[in-house]
Amino acid sequence: MTERTELAGRHIVLGLSGGVACYKAAELTRRLVKAGATVQVVMTAAAEQFITPVTMQALSDRAVFTSQWDARAPNNMAHINLSRAADAIVVAPASADFIAKLARGAADDLLSLMCLARPIERCPLLLAPAMNREMWAHPATQRNAAQVRADGALLLGPASGDQACGEVGDGRMLEAEELLDELIAFFQPKLLVGQRVLITAGPTFEPVDPVRGITNLSSGKMGFAIARAAAEAGAAVTLVAGPVHLPTPRGVRRIDVTTAQQMHDAVLPLASRHGVFIATAAVADWRPVSAAERKVKKQAGEPPPALAVVENPDILAAVARLADAPYCVGFAAESHDLIQNARDKRVRKGVPLIVANLGPATFGRDDNALTLVDANGERELPRADKLSLARALVADLAERLAASPA
Ligand code: C5P
User: Fold this and answer.
1) Which of 19, 272, 292, 404 is most buried, judging by how many CB atoms fall within 10 Å of its CB?
2) Are strands 276-279 and 327-334 parallel, antiparallel or unpaired?
3) Which tens digit of pLDDT belongs to each residue from 65-82?
4) pLDDT > 90: what percent of the chain?
5) What does the pLDDT read at residue 1?
6) CA 232 to CA 193: how far, in whole Å?
7) CA-CA distance, 47 to 293, in Å (whole number)?
8) From 315, 316, 348, mutation site for ligand 1 pocket: most ligand atoms within 8 A of C-beta
């Protein structure tokens, strides 16, 4: 994996209120620092019952603030200084009690005081609720959560699952990795707000018999990165994925398929309801005429069995032909004559944009290099990690959408 420094230059004030999930705040701090952020930890007295400031100071490399009476700052106004320096305040865990305090504007400890004193228009407040499921479901907590949202806070989670108390339900704090992804997404420019984006990704698998099939080396990483980048940019994203071993990017709706025909059948009814279609999938060109019901066995002295194949439907071309077709982007993975092949493909498929990449230099890798080929010429996106390229592609796409009539 390439080193993630996506929060370089960001100063995060990480607030901890009381809850077992405080242990996750330690890991979150470590990940934020690894991602390039500076982290200033502020803890309530209740949080100190669950984890010590010693741990949080060591991980953040900064002395922790726990009291509004802390006399370290020359002006003696920690709540003002801390909130003015922050690019965002993240409270993780945000307990039921702390959300209740925020909802009524209480300010009797440093963390709530600082949240109240923050300049709302330039210091966002993100809350990661963590509590027992009954506490989360209680009308008072729901009322308070709605109130803090209305007052401008963003709630991250909670998730559903096993709880420290042994019960199962809504109220678990998101994991550190998920919170990091949410925060990185939060800082991305919202270039595709209001857009619905449909993406295909990965290979397809065309069964020959119950244990064999025709497939290819596509890992799905480029398509999944584009799905993530589009979601970060504010789009509603549907990802139709072939057989891959990749986690679903946060906030993305995923539909798993195996064969090209299944991918076609999943995509076509959805296409017209989307403004953009990005076909990154490496769809198998052919499939066996029929899959054998039993494993095809070697027969001594017999010639190998003939494999009769038929062509798969071209999903991209089919979507591009729709009367109310979305803006269509195709991918070309070639081994030679990349640009000429991409130009031909663009015309053949009837799409405005083809993204060209070298198959052997991208399949399975974490980095790639792209050439965007449209009717006017080419634009290079030089070699970088796939997520950076996906974000650059999303930015390019947003400009094209803005320029093309709706
Ligand atoms: O025809 P070729 O496979 O070279 O074209 C690649 C582009 O077309 C990619 O965007 C791929 O996702 C799409 N495609 C498709 N359905 C197929 C074959 C390719 O959508 N059956």
Assistant:
1) 19
2) parallel
3) 999 999 999 999 989 999
4) 91
5) 44
6) 9
7) 60
8) 316
Give dist(CA 195, CA 290) in Å, integer.
39
Please tell me if the CB atom of residue 312 comes closer than 6 angstroms to any atom of ligand 1: yes
How many separate helices (H) and strands (E) can be counted in the chain?
13, 19
d(CA 185, CA 334): 32
In which band, very low, low, confident or very high, does the pLDDT at 3 lie, cut at 50, 70 and 90? low
Contact in structure between 378 and 372 (CB atoms under 8 Å): yes
Contacts of residue 190, defined as CB under 8 A and 6 or more positions apart, other chains included, come to 233, 234
Q: Is the pLDDT of residue 2 over 50?
A: no
Two tokens at 147? 């109130």
Q: Is 165 a catalytic residue?
A: yes
Measured from the Cα of 330, ligand 1's closest atom is 10
Q: Which among 255, 212, 211, 221 is positioned nearest to 237, based on CA atoms?
A: 255
Does the beta carbon of 331 lie inside 6 Å of ligand 1?
A: yes
Q: Which residues of 272-283 are buried (b: 16+ CB within 10 A; e: fewer)?
A: eebbbbbbbbbb
Query: Taking all residues of the chain, what is their mean pLDDT, rounded to a whole number?
Result: 95
Question: How high is the pLDDT of residue 404?
Answer: 81
Best mutation site among 205, 314, 357, 358 for ligand 1 pocket (most ligand atoms within 8 Å of CB): 314
User: What spacing in Å lies between the alpha carbon of 345 and ligand 1's midpoint?
Assistant: 9
The finding on whether 99 has its CB within 6 A of some atom of ligand 1 is no
Q: Closest Cα partner for 237 from 184, 185, 193, 281? A: 193
Burial class (CB in 10 A: 0-12, 13-18, 19+), 362: buried
364 has pLDDT over 80:
no
Rounded to two decimals, what is the model's pTM? 0.92
User: β-strands 206-209, 212-214: how paired?
Assistant: antiparallel
Work out the pLDDT band at 365, boundaries 50, 70, 90: confident
CB-neighbour burial class of residue 101 (10 A; exposed 0-12, middle 13-18, buried 19+): buried
The domains located in the chain, with CATH, are 11-187 (3.40.50.1950), 196-403 (3.40.50.10300)
Q: What is the pLDDT of residue 335?
A: 84
